[in-house]
Amino acid sequence: MNSTDSTDSVNPVNPVNHVNSATPATRANPANLVSIRIITDDVARLVVFYEKATGGRAAWANEDFAELSTTSGTLAIGSTRTVALFAPDSARPAENRSVIIEFLVDDVDVLFREVGAWCTDFVNGEPTTMPWGNRSLLVRDPDGNLVNFFTPVSPEAIKKFSR
């Protein structure tokens, strides 16, 4: 293997630690994740869902774009009409099967008792404790995107997510 091979020195536990990678520790201006954007055919429908999910209110720029801000980031919701501004057909609504939108909540079991009033698609049925120490409830939003509500329960997870 030569030094430009992308598999050179890859650490399976930390795959970004390989030759030719620029990690935040070495970059002069590291990237900062500030928002996730969902593209949809029905902005209003998703805004209602995520307002209920977060307990917040959306800020509407226009009928094609709204944002819900939390203390750690922003969930942007854009109409399919906005896609062409980036590149035609670069994103399609309701086709995600690889991303999970996650929300840290105070008590996922309490949320589970309330969420049935505004969500009908439960993926894991009821909150489940994961091996990494979070108690999680996985649902789908009206477009089919996976949404995980979780509460840290192990000492390690509680420490990681203490706010």
Automatic annotation (TrEMBL):
Location of the region described as Disordered in the Swiss-Prot/TrEMBL record: 1-24
InterPro entries: Glyas_Bleomycin-R_OHBP_Dase, Glyas_Fos-R_dOase_dom, VOC_core
Domain VOC: 32-152
Pfam families, per the entry: Glyoxalase
Transmembrane segments: none
Residue ranges with Low complexity bias: 10-20
Protein name: VOC family protein
Organism: Actinospica acidithermotolerans
Phylogenetic classification of the source organism: Bacteria, Bacillati, Actinomycetota, Actinomycetes, Catenulisporales
